[in-house]
Amino acid sequence: MIPHFSDFSANERTYLAWIRTAISLMGFGFLIERFDVFLVYTTRGAVLGNGLHMRASEWLGLGMILLGAVLILLATRSFYRNCRLIQSETEASYRGSAVERVLTALLVALALFLVLYVGYQLTSLQ
Questions:
Q1: Overall number of domains in the chain
Q2: Mean pLDDT rounded to a whole number for the chain
Q3: Structural domain of residue 73, as residue ranges?
Q4: What does the pLDDT look like over 17-66, one tens digit per residue?
Q5: Which candidate, 108, 119, 15, 96, places its Cα nearest to that of 67?
C-alpha cells in the first residue's frame, strides 16, 4: 500500500483539472483568434468599416493561448510542490497562492473584454 495514496491521487486529479482548463483556454484562444474569419464570412467578404478592430481578436486569441501555456507551467509547479508536501513528515498549512488570484482576475477581465468586443462587433454590423 502506498502511504497517503488518497492525497497523491487527489493532487493528481487537481493537476489534470488544471491541464484540462489550460487546454480549453488555448482552444478558446484559437477560436477567438479566428473570429475575424467568421466576421468576414458572415458579411460575405464585404469590407467592414466603422473602425472595426479585426486585429484585436488576433491579439486576444494569442494572449489566451499564451495564458494557457503559462497555466500548464504553473499547474505543474504546484503539482510537484504538493507532492513534496505530501511526502514530508512536517505539517504545513494550506495557502492559496497569489498566482491563482491573478489568473482569476485575468480571466474575469478577459470575459468582460470579450463581451464588450463581441457586442461592439455585432452593433457595427447592423
A1: 1
A2: 81
A3: 5-125
A4: 999 999 999 998 898 888 767 766 776 655 555 445 567 777 888 888 99
A5: 108
